[in-house]
Amino acid sequence: MTVRVEVLGPGCRRCTKLLELVRDVALDECPGVEARYVTDPVEIVRRGFFMRTPALVIDGTVVAAGRVPSRREISTWLAPHHIPLEVHP
Amino acid sequence: MTTVAVRRVDVPLWLTVLAGTTLWIVAWFLALPLSTWLAFDVLGLDPASQLGQAVAFFLFDVPKVLLLLTGIVTMVSFLRSFVSPEKVRGALAGRNAVVGTVAAAGFGIVTPFCSCSAVPLFIGFLEAGVPLGVTFAFLVASPMVNEVAIVLLWGLVGPQLTIAYVVAGLVVAVFAGLLIGRLGLERYVEDYVWKIRAGSVAINDRPTLSDRTRDAWRSTVDIVGRVWPYVIVGIGIGAMIHGFVPTELVVQIGGPGNPLAVPALVALGVPLYSNAAGTIPIIEALLGKGLPVGSALAFMMAITALSLPEMVILRKVMKPRLLATFVAIVAAGIIAVGYLFNFFTA
Question: What is the number of domains present in chain A?
Fold first, then answer.
């Protein structure tokens, strides 16, 4: 089963920064995991993220809201979904 | 990037903050002697000449303003991470028009604002039962009273005009909010907005002090990284105005002799949105050349409060009539501030 990763943000600079970070970590550590970017303000408010963007939601759990977490934090949250490197000489 | 296991050394938070603060203080006290040394000893300019003065002024003001921006924006971003938007909204929902509008204008200061957040903010406020007028007061105050504009005003123009700017901004926000509340324009909000019902969400995010500090520093780097070219260009143009633009010209075009100067400056401020960083140094120089205080204030307020991209975005939630009323009321308020200050400082 694939993990559902969502970045919520109406398009501000901090939001795009979080999206880039998440995509970057995913590409390195769990290829195949796609982050969905939710920019629709109505959906953002409807889901309860009033003035709490950028937010990162992994499998329905809000792990960060209103801030851009560090690469390391994102990596920890995605850790259960890591795809281990198999090439070991 | 290939994955290489690197053991990162964790520097304790207090050490980073201490080192950063020390560096900041050292830089602050070095700016003046370094700028004089650079201008008069390295470049060999004459301290008495106009050019020498302009260059020394430029070399001192640029680091001073950038240091002030970095320090204050970091602190404001850090403190802001403790403000709960839901609590602010809750506090505004049950109030009567006057108290709510004044509180909203005040809260507008402590809440970060970018034009992209205007729509979610508008929907979120109305959905929670915050009155339309109170919502507008917030929408006017939040971009106007922002830390970048305040730091630049304080650092370049001085505390008096900064306080005048903040107070006048709050007055315009309260005035616009009360008036829009009175006019009963609810039906000119796009209909779908009234149908939105927001859910609540459990936020599992408990950032530590060090997470907050790092995030504050990151957003400061982002903000200062974006505005520094404008600050340098603005201070450069300001320095040239100081040195080479005749006072008579400024007084003739922008002075009390030209009654249309205030509305013209307000109109000019609309497309200059978000460029407070580049415009304030120029305004400072023009003030020195005889631009009246009211005209300068009106220009500043128009730059921060009236923005074309924000209007385009707000059209998604407001029918044209409401949007036009909003812009007209804010513009009228700003022009009135300009004339009043010109009248009482003349």
Answer: 1
> Tens of pLDDT along B242-282?
878 888 888 888 877 888 999 999 999 888 876 788 899 99
Above 90 in pLDDT, residue A86?
A: no
Helix (H, G, I), strand (E, B) or coil at A2: coil
| CATH value at residue A60 | 3.40.30.10
Q: Does B225 touch chain A (CB under 8 A)?
A: no
- Is ipTM over 0.85? no
Contact B1/A28, CB-based, under 8 Å? yes
Number of domains in chain B: 1
A85: chain B residues, CB-CB within 8 Å: 3
The predicted model gives B214-231 an average pLDDT of 91
Cis amide linkage into residue A69, ω under 30° from 0: no
| A49 falls within a domain | yes
3-state secondary structure of B196: coil
Residue numbers of the domain that contains B303: 84-195+228-345
Contact B199 A46 (CB under 8 A): yes
| Spatial separation of the C-alpha atoms in residues B346 and B343, rounded to whole Å | 5
The pTM of the whole model exceeds 0.90: no
Domain that holds residue A13: 5-81
pLDDT digits (tens, 9 = 90+) for B157-188: 999 999 999 999 999 999 999 999 999 999 99
B92-96 long-range contacts, CB within 8 A, separation 24+: B92/B125, B92/B130, B92/B134, B92/B138, B93/B128, B93/B129, B93/B130, B94/B129, B95/B134
- Under an 8 A CB cutoff, do B205 and A41 touch? no
According to the 3-state scheme, what is the secondary structure of B150-175?
Answer: HHHHHHHCCHHHHHHHHHHHHHHHHH
Half-sphere CA count of B265, side-chain side, radius 13 A: 30
